[in-house]
């Protein structure tokens, strides 16, 4: 029998490795931009077409490469950052494994042009599917330009799993921000389909955040800075007054590398304890600088997850530092000496140099208690007669209203239950009781039924919204004073993608400048809710569902909106509200569970209750 174990061809091995490193166009953007930073680029340009499916190009003015280095950069595990195992514990660069370019070249058509500073000519290399098609001398600018064309062209199954252009562009924006924020000393520009989305000039961190998220952040940012023997913490948190319903603006950077850490997030969240409004999330942009020997960043293909040698100490330092900054921001304002002059918007001195003291003018002879201040006026007989007629008319109207209310109450008391469900008692009055402002109790033929008021309302709203999607119509209540909502670039792109469905739900919104929408109207059932908080809550629930579920867009939106609009636990309901809730629940196609699958109803039979009282 012949041997069956053999080595994989390099092209196949590279394609398998690419599955870990390059999951979507945003993954390639991240790798290329990090390589540009490692090359010392002071200005980095990102050019994308069709959300990265057609073209991803990164141009930098860094150190460039020789012809030999350029060719070697596409080999697996070829790197300039590591020569021995000990180097793994002293890494301060972005890339170090030597897998990125090899993985990308295995699943795309790549063109590389590079020239070292001081060289007369550079080199141009073309690779398709790990195969070098052409290598020759080239007259190009100093630095490196790498273009990735037709990503996944030879792996159609992977290409079919890519989402719409709007979704993929949103992921690219996220990666762009994660590289641009911790490197404010570098200029970045971002073009998509020949349209400039970002043009970030070199500056300090505060200027970078304002360029990405808007000038309004000038007054929202609270500086955070602390140096210890274990970790140096620096960055900004957002004032609690400007907390949002979404968690989009939460960034941790470890040695200038973006990381995800629920443990450290809890440290920041606990520092905001009792300062945040309900259902709001802290926003922060924090950089942690630690000794590379005390961390392990080599535990995840994208290097976004890390292990700390002493994470409890870092947790404590982070929490106390943020808490201290929040306690000082409104008492001792910080001075940013690196801030540009035009960012200060409070004049220190009047234009003419003269301070004017405010004056108050009063009339010393005014006396409101003087009886002769107003001339006396005689009341005519006609006025007395009119007044009597009005009083008579009002009393008659009040008697009529009282009679109507009495009749209405009698009718309500005589209303016989129309049977909420086959289980409900046919001859009982339609009476329900609320327990702890959370559950609705009512008796049925076989015993007792308990309804979760929030879960029941979620089910009702969920089916109502899905029906509105099918009919492409939902009632809208126009706002008396339209409100604006400013979002980060990622959330703005998400709302643009969902705009047709959001309109179908009853929202009336329109674009208003960069990353801003104007809310002209909201669904008619939500007239008592804040429109900005309603839209932010919808976005947050939608993004959470994206991570947990694989549902389609409309089902996700219906579920998110139902959860956001539902009656929350703790709200007192009237008898009429409880009756209507039960009626509408049993009119649903699936009344026994919430959209997420949790039960809305539970019953206790008479036998079960009898057993409780028997010895």
Characteristic terms for this protein:
single chain, Ribosomal Protein S5, domain 2, 22 strands, 8-stranded mixed beta sheet, 615 residues, Heat Shock Protein 90, Ribosomal Protein S8, Chain: A, domain 1, alpha+beta, 5-stranded mixed beta sheet, 35% helix
Tell me about this structure.
The chain has 615 residues and is α+β, with helices and mostly antiparallel strands. It has helices at 10-21, 25-38, 67-72, 100-106, 156-160, 165-180, 205-213, 262-271, 311-328, 381-414, 453-471, 489-504, 531-548, 553-565, 575-586, 606-612, and strands at residues 43-49, 55-60, 109-115, 122-128, 131-138, 143-149, 187-192, 195-200, 221-227, 232-238, 250-254, 257-259, 284-289, 295-296, 307-308, 433-435, 439-444, 447-452, 476-486, 508-511, 516-523, 601-605. It contains 16 helices and 22 strands. The strands form five sheets. It has an eight-stranded mixed sheet. The chain has a five-stranded mixed sheet with strand order 9-10-13-11-12, covered by helices on one side. A four-stranded antiparallel sheet has the order 16-17-18-22. Helix 1 (10-21) packs across helix 4, helix 6 (165-180) packs antiparallel against helix 12 and helix 13 (531-548) packs across helix 14 (553-565). The N and C termini lie far apart (75 Å).
């Amino acid at each position: 029998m012949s041997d069956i174990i053999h080595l994989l061809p390099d092209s196949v091995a590279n394609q398998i490795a690419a599955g870990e490193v390059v999951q979507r166009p945003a993954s390639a953007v991240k790798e290329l931009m990090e390589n540009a930073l490692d090359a010392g680029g002071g200005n980095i340009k990102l050019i994308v077409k069709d959300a990265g499916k057609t073209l991803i190009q990164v141009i930098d003015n860094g150190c460039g490469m020789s012809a030999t280095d350029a060719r070697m950069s596409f080999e697996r595990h070829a790197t300039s950052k590591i020569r021995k195992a000990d180097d793994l514990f002293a890494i301060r660069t972005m890339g170090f494994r030597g897998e990125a370019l090899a993985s990308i070249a295995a699943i795309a058509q790549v063109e590389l042009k590079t020239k070292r500073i001081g060289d007369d000519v550079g080199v141009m290399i073309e690779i398709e599917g790990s195969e070098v098609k052409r290598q020759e001398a080239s007259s190009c600018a100093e630095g490196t330009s790498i273009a990735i064309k037709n990503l996944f062209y030879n792996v159609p199954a992977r290409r079919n799993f890519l989402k719409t252009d709007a979704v993929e562009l949103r992921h690219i924006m996220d990666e762009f921000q994660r590289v641009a924020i911790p490197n404010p000393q570098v200029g970045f520009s971002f073009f998509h389909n020949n349209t400039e989305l970002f043009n970030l000039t070199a500056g300090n961190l505060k200027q970078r955040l304002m360029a990405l998220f808007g000038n309004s952040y000038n007054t929202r940012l609270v500086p955070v800075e602390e140096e210890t023997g274990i970790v140096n913490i620096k960055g900004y948190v957002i004032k609690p007054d400007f907390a949002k319903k979404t968690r989009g603006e939460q960034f941790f950077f470890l040695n200038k590398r973006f990381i995800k850490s629920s443990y450290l997030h809890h440290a920041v969240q606990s520092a905001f304890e009792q300062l945040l409004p309900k259902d709001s999330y802290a926003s922060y942009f924090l950089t942690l600088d630690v000794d590379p020997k005390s961390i392990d960043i080599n535990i995840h293909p994208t290097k976004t997850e890390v292990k700390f040698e002493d994470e409890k100490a870092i947790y404590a330092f982070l929490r106390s530092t943020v808490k201290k900054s929040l306690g000082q921001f409104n008492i001792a304002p910080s001075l940013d000496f690196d801030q540009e002059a035009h960012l200060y918007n409070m004049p220190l001195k009047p234009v003419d140099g003269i301070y004017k003291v405010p004056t108050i003018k009063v009339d010393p002879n005014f006396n409101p208690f003087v009886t002769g201040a107003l001339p006396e006026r005689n009341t005519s007989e006609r006025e007395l007669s009119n007044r009597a007629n009005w009083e008579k008319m009002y009393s008659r109207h009040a008697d009529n209203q009282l009679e109507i209310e009495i009749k209405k109450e009698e009718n309500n008391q005589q209303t016989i239950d129309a049977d909420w469900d086959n289980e409900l008692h046919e001859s009982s009055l339609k009476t329900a009781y609320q327990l702890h402002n959370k559950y609705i109790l009512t008796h049925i033929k076989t015993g007792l039924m308990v309804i979760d008021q929030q879960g029941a309302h979620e089910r009702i709203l969920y089916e109502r919204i899905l029906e509105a999607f099918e009919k492409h119509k939902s009632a809208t209540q126009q706002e008396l004073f339209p409100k604006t909502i400013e979002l980060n670039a990622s959330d703005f792109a998400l709302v643009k993608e969902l705009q047709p469905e959001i309109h179908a739900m009853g929202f009336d919104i329109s674009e208003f400048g960069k990353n801003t929408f104007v809310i002209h109207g909201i669904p008619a059932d939500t007239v008592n809710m804040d429109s900005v908080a309603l839209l932010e809550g919808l976005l947050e629930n939608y993004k959470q569902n994206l991570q947990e579920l694989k549902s389609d867009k409309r089902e996700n939106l219906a579920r998110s909106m139902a959860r956001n609009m539902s009656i929350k636990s703790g709200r007192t309901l009237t008898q009429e509200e409880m009756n209507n809730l039960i009626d509408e629940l049993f009119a649903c196609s699936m009344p026994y569970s919430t959209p997420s699958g949790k039960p809305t109803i539970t019953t206790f039979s008479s036998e079960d209750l009898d057993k409780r009282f028997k010895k």
